[in-house]
Amino acid sequence: MVQRRYWVGVLLAVASSPAHIQISGCVDSIAVADEVLSVRTTPLASDEDVQEQRARDAAWLTRHALTAGLNGSADTRRAALEKALATDADCEEAHWHLGEVRYKDEWLPVDEVESRVATDPDIAEYRKLKAALNGDSQRTLALATWCMKRGMPDAAELHLRQVLASRESRAADQQDAARRLGLERVGDRWLSSAEAKALRDRSEQTDKLARRLASSLRRWRRLIEGNSAEQRQQAIDQIRELKDSNAITILERGLSASSVTTAAAMIEVLSTWDHKDASLSLARHALLVPDETVQQAAIAELKRRSIHDYVPELLSMLAPRLTTEFRVANQSDGVIRHEHMIKAVGQDRDQILAVQRTHVPIGVLTPSTDDARTGFEDSV
User: Fold this and answer.
1) 8 A C-beta contact, residue 269 and residue 277
2) How many other C-beta atoms can be found within 10 angstroms of the C-beta atom of residue 56?
3) What is the pLDDT of residues 130-145, one digit of tens each?
4) What average pLDDT does the segment 346-364 reach?
């Protein structure tokens, strides 16, 4: 885990470094950092401002440490990381890159954590309690409480989220878990209060923008679908001037869904917008517009963009692969048993649905013809 986070940090450092900074120029970064951090031309207003500035300074030192490591200077890398921790003792990235992880409110080397875990009675008890959960939501909630009391907040959060994710959880238990996590249900998702508010605010802004753009959409659609290339370009240029990313959803409904011609024009518009929402819209055009020319244009534009803008959304849309198996068993007493098993192979877990039906001969059920017929129909 530490090694993986290290390489992620390295990539982030390289990606966030200004293009004009060369790796070979970072060997003396610690000396520069000492000068920069020791002189403050602007006084900080409060303790909170001081802490925020320390966090930024520590993050800056960590990035330079990783760059020094890429340059082959291990001593400079370690010195920069130690300087980062001296600046902000809570800098997680610096701890990680020094091979330390948090264990019960302490930052310790990985080897020492492994040694402590092996002999920790709380860990042994935790594993025993976890093995006895059997998917029961009340037991899972109780284990989350147990974890919090013993300084294991990450494990507690994991089990609370398990209660939310399981379809077998009681509704009251899910509400309890959501309350403890500070989440609320919006549609089929659990969101934080801030996320839910942001979603509602964006929905309101989109509705207002849709009402304001209604007449313009009709005019743009008419110009784009008309015979004048000049008017078509005029409409596209006007659409490009929209700065609100909420307009994309409105444009998809008002233009892209209208015709292949307007969908192609939308690709031209989206190609000049570099934000994530534009990339997601291009992905939707590539998937949903029933025209190969538009699809290929959207795909060509997506190839120029970061895959991190749209690939996660595409992966979340993947339907699980279904396999099905059907069995019929004829017993000696005339009873017929049908068994139908459906298995869904997902990214995170597999699900199995088994349906069994038993068909009993009418004479076995009852001598009454009417009752027998009813029983047979019910069994089917």
Assistant:
1) no
2) 12
3) 999 988 999 999 999 9
4) 70
Q: Is the pLDDT of residue 363 over 70?
A: no
Q: Is the CA virtual torsion 13, 18, 23, 28 positive or negative?
A: negative
Angle 168-170-173 from CA coordinates, rounded to 5°: 125
Structure tokens of 120?
Answer: 């920790």
Cα 37-69-72 angle, rounded to 5 deg: 125
Torsion of CA 359, 361, 366, 370, to 10 degrees: 80
Residue 255 gets which letter from DSSP? I
pLDDT digits 0-9 by tens, 178-220: 999 999 888 777 888 899 999 899 889 989 999 999 999 999 9
Q: Kindly report, residue by residue over 57-104, the tens digit of the pLDDT.
A: 999 999 999 999 999 999 999 999 999 999 999 999 999 999 999 887
| 332, 300 contact by CB (below 8 A) | no
Domain boundaries along the sequence of the chain: 2-110, 120-181, 196-316, 321-379
- 378, 367 Cβ separation under 8 angstroms: no
- Contact 252/213 with Cβ under 8 angstroms? no
Assess contact for 336 and 326: CB atoms under 8 A: no
